[in-house]
Amino acid sequence: MSVEQNRVHYLKSQSVGLSMIVGTLMVIAIIAYQSLYYQKNNESLHLQQQGQALAQLISEVPADELDEQTTRNALKILQESLSKNDLAYAMVVSAQGLPLSQITAAGVNPPLPQISAAPSSWTGETRLALEDGRTVMEFYAPFLIDGEYKGSVHIGLFEPEISAGFEQLSFLASMALPVFLLAPLFYFLMRRQLQPLQNTQREIAQHLQSGALQNVKLSASGELGEFMENFNAFFREASDKIQALEHDNHSMLASSKVLNYKFNRIESVIEAIPGAVLVFDASGSLMFANSKVETLLGVDAGVALEQPIASWCPNDEIFRFLARCSDPANRAIPELRVEVETSNTRKQLNFNAYPLFVSANDARSKGNLVLIRDASREVAAESSREEFVAHISHELKTPLNTLMMYSEALLGEDGRDAEFRTQGLNVIFDESERMAGLISNLLSITKIEMGSLNIDRQRVKFNEFIEDTFRTIEKGSGDSGLSFQLQLPDDAIPVAIDKDLMRIAVNNLLTNAVKYNRPGGTVSLDVEDLDDAVRITVRDTGIGISSEDLEHVFDKFYRSESDEVRERTGHGLGLSLAHDIVQLHNGRLNVSSVLNEGTAFTIELFKESELLRNVG
Length: 616
Prior knowledge:
By secondary structure, the chain is of the alpha+beta class. It has 4 domains: 3-158, PAS domain (Beta-Lactamase, 2-Layer Sandwich), CATH 3.30.450; 273-374, Beta-Lactamase; 381-444, Signal transduction histidine kinase, dimerisation/phosphotransfer (DHp) domain (Helix Hairpins), CATH 1.10.287.130; 456-615, Histidine kinase-like ATPase, C-terminal domain (Heat Shock Protein 90). Helix content is 52%, strand content 20%. It has helices spanning 3-58, 68-81, 166-210, 224-272, 292-297, 301-306, 309-312, 316-325, 376-411, 418-450, 462-476, 499-515, 547-550, 563-566, 574-584, 608-615, and strands at 87-94, 99-104, 124-129, 135-145, 148-158, 276-280, 286-289, 336-342, 345-357, 365-374, 458-459, 483-487, 496-497, 522-529, 533-540, 588-594, 598-606. The strands form 4 sheets. It has a 5-stranded antiparallel β-sheet with strand order 2-1-5-4-3, covered by helices on one side. Helix 9 packs antiparallel against helix 10 and helix 10 packs parallel to helix 15.
């Protein structure tokens, strides 16, 4: 045991001894006080009996002898019969309340009595406080002649106080001495009985400090021996139980870690599934829901687990489907596709149910697993494919019908007319060229979407490339009456592009500027050499594009419902293809337009240094 522990143990022992001494003194003081208080009460009772008897005795003096001489003699007899420490005063009072005679102790000024006409107040006793603060017990009785009140006698005795004289001190000392002697004896016996317990406590504390509880063995003699033996047996059994529990705890902890790892791994796999997952157990309760439930169904996974399905599933079709899934007896549940709206977004959701089995040999279902996935893209893709086929059919059917019509006409009588033959051949050439352009654009878009189109970037003479493309469109416009303006920078531009693809993109923008312009309008192409990019702007002063159509100008096969647009030929692939080509070059294609005023398309192609910086 350390020095500090020894000091603490010594202080505890001293404090116990001091506490016992203080307690003993308090017991002695209480006993002394009770003894003196009992003695004081006995004296008070004795004086009360004596005072009542004396007052009654003096009141029996014949009333016709109530003169000062007679009463004085009676009071003197009273004074001689009482102790000087007991008598405060004695006086005889006439019927008018005037004292006939009185005797008093030194320094006592007796109060004058209050005479009452009520006979019930003529005899009795009372306690009065003197001017010096002392308390007296006053006893009084009347003098009567033929029942008539002639006066009264009043005797005041000092009320006894608690005091300890020599006799009392001797008595208290003889009584306190045994009590005081018993205290150390009791303390010694208690220390003797508690010594084994204190030793046991110190040994237990040492073992607790060292942590070697399995080696504890306590011993004691006397009456504590049997207790220590039982305690040691109990401790050995408890130690064995603790060791077994620790072993079980380690095993359970290891098993818990394995199960937790497996559960986390399974939960991670389920969370990684792109769709929402719901699991119903054999009782029909929803026992698991991953976080995708909130994205697809608009309900928090915790709410779905805690509340009934009817409270968070407002869609009747989904509710009926999930209600069937909650019954494990339902195994063949058909797929459900339903349209829902969450957060102002409409989605097409697919619901598939799969029964759960414990093993392949156990045919009993343990519940159902519901997989919910967003089929909006599939539905949109199906719609797009159908729309794509419809557009292609329409775009190919129109020139084919024209070709067939002119071919039949040329084979007939109209073919003999030279002017009609020329016109027919021109129409056949234009429609064939239109079909070739459509097929070429389709092939390019298909390659881009499939990722099979390889872009071949090379440094080109950019000014010459743009000017050649622009002049080709200008020559091809014929007698359209349009004005063409080209603005190029003076210096060479350091940019690498796929020349063939970029020619298609710029050519499509210029073709649209010519097609949707007005007679006498202007088509302009401006090239700006910026610090980090090259900006190509194609403007026209044509019919313009409405704000509603601006959002869809780069969609495949999109054409405005405007009459001015519909009266011009086109298949809605040129701008979509141009947009894809610019993106392949890591550039941007933007559009701005004012209806009936004109449109501007802007291509921004980043220079090589900027591309490298973005990659880094």
